[in-house]
Amino acid sequence: MSGERHYNIPSEATMDVIGGKWKIIVLCHLSYGPKRTSEIKKKMPDITQKMLTQTLRELEEDGIITRTVFNQVPPKVVYELSEMGVSLQPILDQICEWGEMYLNEKSKVIRGQAKEQLLT
Amino acid sequence: MSGERHYNIPSEATMDVIGGKWKIIVLCHLSYGPKRTSEIKKKMPDITQKMLTQTLRELEEDGIITRTVFNQVPPKVVYELSEMGVSLQPILDQICEWGEMYLNEKSKVIRGQAKEQLLT
DNA sequence: CCGGATCCAAAGAGATACTG
DNA sequence: CAGTATCTCTTTGGATCCGG
Question: Which terms are listed as keywords in the entry (chains A, B) (predicted)?
Fold first, then answer.
C-alpha cells in the first residue's frame, strides 16, 4: 500500500485495503475473536492455503490484523484484528446482517415460485 | 445467482452480490442518485467500459440496481439503486467514512515520518 | 504434523479497435 | 453513447515441496 495512488472517492481507499476475493470473509471470521491459521481454514473450506496465507499477509501489511508466532512444535500462529481492524467491525457486522436478510428474501421468492407452480 | 451455492457464513452471500473489484465503488456512486453510463464512467476513470458494463449487468441480475433504456439517438441508459440496493446504503456510507478515516490516519503517519527525518 | 513457499495452469481484468 | 470482440497481462487456483 505504499503505491501512493490517487483515489476518486474515499471508498476506493477502503476497497484497496479490504477488497479482493477473500479479505472481508477472513475479517468477518476474525471479528468473532483471534484464530490460528488452521481454524480460519476450517471456517473457509473453499480457500486454498496459498490464498489464505497471501490474504493474511496483505491484511497484516496494511495494519488491519496482527500475526503472533508461538515458537513450538507443531508451530502455532494466531491472527487477530488490530485496532484499525476493530474499527471495521461495524462494516463487518452489517455485511453479515445484510447477507442474512438477502438469503431470507431469496428463499421467500423461491417459495413464492413453488406456490405459483402448484397453482398452474 | 441461480447456482444455489452453500454459504459458510451469511457474509459470503453479501460478498457474492457486492464482491468483485468494482461493484462496491459503482454502488457508492449510485448511492448519490441515478446516473447514466457515461456519468459513472466519468466518476471512475480507471474502469474500462467492458468491466463497467459487466459490473452493471451483474448488479442488475442480482436485483441491486435497475436499468432504464431511453430509445433515442444517441442512446441513453440510466442506472439506479433498486429497493434492495437502497438497503445497502448504510454499508456504502460506512465504507466511505472508513476510507476518509483511513486516509487521515495514513497522512498522519507520513507527516510523523517526515518529522522524524527532520530530527535526524 | 502445521504453516508456509514454489511452480504451473486457469480464470479474471486491462487495452484497444469496432458496431448499432 | 452504450456496448461488443479480441488479445494480452495480472490474479487466483491446485499440486507439490520445505522447515521446524
Answer: DNA-binding, Transcription, Transcription regulation
